[in-house]
């Protein structure tokens, strides 16, 4: 039950009647549907932070669309080892038949990685930057990672599809510092999984550029249409900058 005053405020802001609340995890799925459907873009792997990766509905939505993903998750997320198999208790003949269930309680992904041990971590260089030093002449971005096959506990009953759990465990750290889930092929290499996991820096870079360089958060109007115009022009400006970067003969944005 919404107050009448809210309807009046929506009218003053120019918000259309067809604009309604959508759960946060549904918004990127809607955009992906448009990109791969209307626009005809290829279905490339999706990377996301834990704000989306912790949402089982989001991950299932990606898998349902035939999209591979590498998404960050909270270390407190729970799972079973991949070999775990649900068992069904004998039916007593009364009431609802029992549903398949795992005999053991799930544990956190952090516990699974700690149980696997640091010995399973391997050094991986996922990118080469531009800041070379005497100790790092190739500007390699590297750390230690390990991967496990697990079954996340995010559905009621039945068997859960196994997937990759990737953990970053630097040599100087007492415990892992980052965790990701991925539904990529069981044959995917650790380096490939790591490169996708670490691609999120690009998302952070682009968002920082939108805010600090292009002013997406400078909008001070009060209308829905005005906000859309502001966002559209800001994103177009960023697309222009991205195209300039692809042209090796052009100066970088901001260089005169």
UniProtKB/TrEMBL annotation:
Pfam family, one: DDE_5
Protein known as: Transposase IS701-like DDE domain-containing protein
Lineage of origin: Bacteria, Bacillati, Actinomycetota, Actinomycetes, Micromonosporales
Ranges where the record places region Disordered: 80-102
Species for this entry: Actinoplanes siamensis
Domain (Transposase IS701-like DDE) ranges: 6-132
SUPFAM superfamilies registered for this protein in UniProt: Ribonuclease H-like (SSF53098)
Biased composition (Low complexity): 80-95
């Amino acid at each position: 039950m919404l107050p009448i005053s809210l309807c009046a405020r929506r009218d003053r802001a120019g918000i259309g009647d067809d604009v309604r609340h959508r759960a946060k995890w549904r918004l990127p799925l809607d955009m992906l549907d448009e990109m791969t459907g209307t626009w005809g873009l290829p279905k490339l792997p999706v990377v996301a932070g834990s704000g989306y990766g912790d949402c089982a509905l989001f991950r299932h939505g990606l898998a349902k669309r035939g999209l591979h993903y590498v998404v960050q998750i909270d270390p407190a997320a729970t799972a079973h080892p991949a070999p775990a198999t649900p068992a069904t208790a004998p039916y007593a003949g009364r009431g609802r038949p029992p549903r398949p269930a795992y005999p053991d309680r799930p544990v956190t992904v952090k516990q699974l990685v700690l149980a696997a041990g640091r010995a399973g971590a391997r050094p991986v260089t996922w990118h080469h930057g531009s800041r070379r030093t005497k100790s790092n002449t190739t500007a390699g971005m590297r750390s230690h990672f390990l991967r496990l096959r697990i079954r996340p506990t995010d559905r009621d009953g039945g068997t859960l599809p196994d997937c990759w759990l990737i953990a970053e465990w630097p040599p100087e750290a007492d415990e892992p510092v980052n965790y990701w889930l991925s539904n990529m092929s069981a044959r995917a290499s650790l380096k490939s999984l790591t490169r996708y996991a670490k691609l999120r820096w690009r998302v952070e870079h682009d968002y920082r550029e939108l805010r600090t360089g292009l002013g997406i958060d400078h909008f001070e109007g009060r209308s829905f249409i005005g906000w859309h115009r502001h966002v559209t022009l800001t994103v177009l400006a960023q697309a222009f900058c991205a195209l300039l970067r692809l042209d090796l003969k052009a100066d970088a944005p901001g260089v005169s």
